Amino acid sequence: MKLMKYCLSPNKLAWLRQELGENADGLIAVMDAAGSAYLAQAAQSDASVAIDALPKLIGPELKLLWFKQKLALITRLDDIELSKLAPFELEGARVVVVQPNELTTVLQSLSKQRVIGFDTETRASFERGVQHPLSLIQIATHDTCYLFQHALLAERLGLLKPVLEDENILKVGVGLRSDGQALTREWGINVTPRLDLNWVLAQLGAGKEMGTRQLVATLLQKRIDKPKKVTLSNWQQVPLTSTQIVYAALDALAAQHCFSELIDKLKPFYLASLEANTQLLTQNLTVRLASYFEQANG
User: Fold this and answer.
1) 29 belongs to a structural domain
2) Bridge partners, residue 134, by sequence
3) Does any domain span residue 27?
């Protein structure tokens, strides 16, 4: 754990580095190690505590474990740490670039889902005042990502409206506000209900938006690369390149997988808080996720 990253704002950490001088990194590492050792001792070897045993814990011991879980989830990795992680890959997941004659069948399949990963791509503009329309919508289940390209589907893209507005299907992603605004502006689609994973981490204490790279790193222990060359590529071209297809699919799949992992990590503390009649998760987070905790518990 990196307590200094969590407990100090970037400005205060920068000030501390300046005050400590050339030995700053070493001294901060020593302080981190001392803090981690203290927590480990206070928790009385909590690593041996099974997840199923959490509801039986009470008082300070439970709160300490909750603090450590939050700390693990919201601590940002630096570039060196990220580079050491294995890449987040498709790993058997299917990617389907939806053709017009497949659209009805795909939408029927998606209508049966309860949670879907969601993202969009838009062709970058390099001219002031020029904004291109939304080019691609990515929707992912746990093992399949569907790519809906405007250049292929044209006005049929509006047929996604029932799925994207279905109150029984949660759309999860990162930075969903701009995606939702584009769909409302261009297609009259109000994406709801939706859950921005940045918001979840903020509820756990993250000081600033984590972003997809940090979320994938902390939750999945994987590295997702976001090369500018692909991000700024032409998403209207037909066909999309294999690199574009994989890039787009991984974003939506990552959102779906990160949500599942968050539920798995937070559920024991939700159940423990009910058992101990104490508040661990924020009220807002509890309200938004309670039904998914209960489903996962069932």
Assistant:
1) yes
2) 122
3) yes
User: Is residue 101, in this structure, part of any structural domain at all?
Assistant: no
pTM equals 0.84
CB neighbour burial string for 75-106, b if at least 16 within 10 angstroms, e if fewer: bbbeeeebeebeebeeeebebebbeeeebeeb
The DSSP annotation for 180-247 comes to HHHHHHHH-----SEEEHHHHHHHTT-SS--HHHHHHHHHHSEE----HHHHTS-TT-SSPPHHHHHH
**Do 244 and 233 touch, CB atoms closer than 8 A?**
yes
pLDDT one digit per residue (tens) for the chain, 298 residues: 466 655 666 666 777 777 778 877 887 777 777 766 665 555 444 444 455 555 555 567 788 889 889 989 998 998 999 999 999 999 999 999 999 999 999 999 999 999 999 999 998 766 776 677 899 999 999 999 999 999 999 999 999 999 999 999 999 999 999 999 999 999 999 999 999 999 999 999 997 789 999 999 999 999 999 999 999 999 999 999 999 999 999 999 999 999 999 999 999 999 989 988 888 999 999 999 999 999 865 5
Domain count, the chain: 1
Host domain of residue 32: 1-47
Q: Is residue 201 part of a domain?
A: no
